[in-house]
């Protein structure tokens, strides 16, 4: 206790150390120094943060740059592929255009050749139809030919042939309005008359028909039969007849044969005149045939009367029909042929 008490007063009685004296300037300096240190630390932190952000941005930019470069590379590859495909398409298009031009040229040449062939056939058909009209007056054959031509031209469907089709249709309409003449029927009737000339009885044979003679009585015995036959033969030796046409009775068998052949030739000439539309010659031949029949043949026979009646009916037929010609259509088809031949291949 005494020691502690001794020590305590000594501690209390010991002189105090004097603290250092701080001036305001020093405080301001310290504060400024602390503030500068804080600012420096903040700036360092900010710079570090900025550096990290810039590093991240730079890395992101480099990544985007690499992505952009990759996309650009892919775009260049696609562009090159597209250029190759475009070149291939252009080559195919040029090839297609060349083929199309060649096909068009071939089609034009083929069509032109087909047109020339059809026009040549048309000209031949028109010439034949014109001959049929002028020589034989065959309207039906001319109509068949013109209709066939119109069908061919319609199938060809060429605009430069419109004028030709109009001309042909005009001729068809004209032929359809013509009166009908049955040339085939008249020719068939003439052929029938020619075939029946050999069966017509001559005037010299008119009284030799057994139907006109009285049948002798049937004999009773052989002696009467012999006497009847003898009397019949005696009557055949001498005949008394009235002759109105002495020329007809003086015909020999050879003359009768040539008479029939001459009549046949007259009928055949009438048939030829019918086909040529020569009405004068046709009527003259029929009149000559009629005169021969009335002069040299038995007009009391039914066959002769029917033949004369048929000749009278035929002589009243009108052959001189005014038929149109086909000159306009022939001129049109020739002009179309010249135009087609002068066209550029």
From TrEMBL:
Keywords: Membrane, Transmembrane, Transmembrane helix. InterPro entries: HemX. Pfam families: HemX (PF04375). The chain crosses the membrane at residues 22-42. This is Uroporphyrinogen-III C-methyltransferase. It comes from Jeongeupia naejangsanensis. The lineage of its organism: Bacteria, Pseudomonadati, Pseudomonadota, Betaproteobacteria, Neisseriales.
């Amino acid at each position: 206790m005494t020691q502690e008490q001794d020590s305590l007063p000594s501690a209390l009685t010991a002189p105090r150390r004097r603290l250092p004296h701080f001036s305001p300037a020093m405080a301001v300096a310290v504060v400024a120094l602390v503030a500068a240190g804080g600012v420096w630390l903040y700036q360092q932190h900010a710079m570090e943060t900025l550096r990290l952000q810039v590093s991240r941005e730079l890395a992101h930019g480099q990544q985007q740059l690499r992505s952009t470069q990759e996309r650009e590379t892919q775009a260049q590859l696609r562009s090159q592929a597209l250029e190759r495909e475009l070149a291939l398409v252009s080559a195919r298009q040029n090839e297609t255009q060349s083929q199309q031009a060649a096909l068009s040229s071939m089609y034009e040449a083929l069509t032109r050749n087909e047109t020339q062939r059809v026009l040549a056939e048309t000209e031949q058909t028109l010439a034949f139809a014109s001959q049929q009209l002028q020589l034989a007056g065959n309207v039906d054959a001319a109509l068949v030919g013109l209709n066939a031509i119109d069908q061919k031209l319609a199938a060809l469907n060429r605009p430069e042939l419109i004028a030709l089709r109009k001309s042909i249709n005009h001729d068809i309409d004209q032929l359809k309005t013509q009166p009908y003449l049955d040339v085939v029927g008249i020719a068939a009737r003439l052929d029938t008359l020619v075939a029946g000339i050999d069966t017509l009885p001559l005037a010299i044979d008119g009284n030799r028909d057994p139907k006109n003679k009285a049948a002798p009585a049937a004999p009773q015995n052989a002696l009467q039969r012999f006497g009847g036959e003898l009397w019949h033969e005696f009557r055949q030796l001498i005949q008394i007849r009235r002759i109105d046409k002495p020329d007809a009775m003086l015909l020999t068998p050879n003359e009768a044969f040539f008479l029939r052949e001459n009549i046949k030739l007259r009928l055949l000439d009438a048939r030829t005149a019918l086909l040529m539309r020569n009405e004068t010659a046709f009527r003259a031949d029929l009149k000559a045939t009629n005169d021969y029949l009335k002069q040299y043949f038995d007009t009391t026979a039914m066959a002769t009367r029917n033949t004369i009646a048929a000749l009278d009916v035929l002589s009243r037929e009108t052959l001189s029909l005014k038929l149109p010609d086909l000159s306009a259509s022939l001129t049109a088809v020739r002009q179309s042929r010249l135009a087609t031949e002068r066209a550029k291949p």
